[in-house]
Amino acid sequence: MSTDPTRSHAPGPPHLAIIGAGPAGLAAALAAAGEGVRVTVVDAARAPGGQFYRQPAAGLGARRPGALHHQWRTWRRLRDGLRRQIDAGHVTHLPDHHVWCVERRPEGGGIDGGPARLTVHALLGPGQETPAEVRADAVLLATGGYEKVLPFPGWTLPGVVSAGGAQAMLKGGLVVSGRTAVVAGTGPLLLPVATGLAAAGVTVAALVESTGPRALARRAGALAGRADKLAEGAGYAVELLRRRVRTLVRHTVVEAHGADRLEAVTVAALDAEGRVRPGSERRIPCDTLAVGHGMLPHTDLAETLGCRVESPGQRVWVDGEQRTDVPGVWAAGETTGIGGAALSLAEGHIAGRSAAARLRGWVPDPGTWAGAAESRAELRRFFEALDTVYVPPAHWTEQVRDDTVVCRCEEVTAGAVREAVGELGAGDVRTVKLLTRAGMGWCQGRMCGPAVAGIAGCEQAVARRPFAQPVPLGVLARTGEVRTGEVRTGEVRTGESEQDDDDR
Amino acid sequence: MKPMELARAEPGPAFTVTLDGRQLDALPGQTVAAALWAAGVTSWRSTRGEGRPRGIFCGIGVCFDCLITVNDRPNQRACLIPLRPGDAIRTQEGTGHEH
């Protein structure tokens, strides 16, 4: 080990920073810590678990926190493992750290030619104004994903929430926004959302899924490989029947109604081409619409690091060891392609093992993670098949009226996007953005990206966002004041301690 | 409060915050958004352009639709910020800097 170049610059074991404490990040942390690497898990949430294992807030004193979860036993194993590694001093967990950028100093050379000198820049706490830095020899991005929602008239009304949003509020805050909900869109997430809301006492007036059973049947061969996943789906179906939730397949929401908040939705049947069948519209009174059209990976940090991001899919490219094409940077979980918690666990495990071995100067033996690799291959095949089944209706843009807001932040309508393309000659989403301001607001196009591309008839481009979070200008101005060498690798430095140093 | 029953929640004592001066009960650990939903409030912001009402949309800090003014700091994401006793929440108009 004395010849290991990564250890020459700092005492102690090499240091891996993991961004994200969901299934992928935690699996990676446990795997790497088990291989003698020091790990810092940097996470935006106040408690580990990510979106999938989101817990009721501690202050709510939930005695049955697993009531709204699946695979609670797996979570307990991760949680207990994390606790043990923290107690042993191998893992540091930094909650409430909102990472806005990961910086790589090219002169560091990366793990093949010396320390990579990666700096993780975060903002602390709910105020998100105090900066913190974590220096590490390698970084593992386990930043997860978020939900895609395509627009329709009325989708900006209060009471219309993303399906995952309804679930997050329920799991974390133990709250629902009303008494009667419609769950709509497409994708496997709609099932746990509908059953979760029903279990929490909400009347689920309808589950509206635009895909039909025939599409599933066509991919039966490809899906059969993961009987556990199919059984999970069947379990939800039984639960929906038991709770008398009406399920409308090959249906879509065409409009949400209400003045200042949601009062009803209109749903309609779809024909074989994915067009609304005229005359099939029906109105369902409800105060909540939980709607989602699939998931998108978080790729911002990878983009700033210069990692290859694949389009379509907008996912971070990784090799068999979960390495990105940037030395010293690994990625695992939804950020490398949407595939659920089980796939995230497998990828995280592989990434953690690989990073630990490489950091200690060894070439890892893939045989040591053969089980996880097999699981990864099966689940990737399964979700690739699922992806071809759960697609939004082919003609969804026909339901988007010219006065429908597409970009929620900048209130850009579909009409403006269509004008940019039709009359002003925009041929790509970047030009549409410049002409209309769609995607220039707070969320930086995370919400409207797929919608603008769809309505403009352009391919969705890989976003280039310099920062993953809004950053106060003062923080930005002071970044880089901490000179290399001042902070030892792995040390956590906050803006406050920086202030203390100045006072001394 | 059915979800609370489902998770057999035994929260710490409720405390008081204000929404536009009106007193509101909140539970320890609840975010601004959760407390507002529990109180039956689903919109707390009006947009800069059209003055349209908005509240929670993504629920996980990505969309910035749930912006609100907390203790005179505008543009805080209600879905991320936990409440503390005595917090003064104000519904937000436009950028929140116009008052």
Description of the structure:
The complex is a heterodimer of chains A (504) and B (99). The longest helix of chain A is centred in the C-terminal third of the chain and has 20 residues, at 340-359. Chain A folds into 3 domains: 15-145 and 296-364, FAD/NAD(P)-binding domain (3-Layer(bba) Sandwich); 151-292, FAD/NAD(P)-binding domain; 400-478, Arc Repressor Mutant, subunit A, CATH 1.10.10. Chain A has a 5-stranded parallel β-sheet. In chain A, α1 runs parallel beside α9, α4 (190-199) packs parallel to α7 and α11 packs across α12. The radius of gyration of chain A is 23 Å and the shape is globular. Chain A is built from 15 helices and 23 strands. Chain A has 504 residues and is α/β, with parallel strands linked by helices. Chain B has 99 residues and is an alpha/beta fold. Chain B has one domain: Ubiquitin-like (UB roll). Chain B contains 2 helices and 8 strands. Chain B has helices spanning 2-6, 32-38; strands at 15-19, 22-26, 45-46, 53-54, 67-70, 73-77, 88-90, 92-93. Chain B has a 5-stranded mixed β-sheet, covered by helices on one side. In chain B, strands 4-3-8 form a 3-stranded mixed β-sheet, with no helix packed on it. The longest helix of chain B is centred in the middle third of the chain and has 7 residues, at 32-38. The relative contact order of chain B is 0.22. The model of chain B has no long low-confidence stretch (mean pLDDT 94). At the A-B interface, β9 and α3 of A face α1, α2, β4 and β6 of B.
What is the gist of this entry?
The complex is a heterodimer of chains A (504) and B (99). With 504 residues, chain A is of the alpha/beta class. Chain A contains 15 helices and 23 strands.
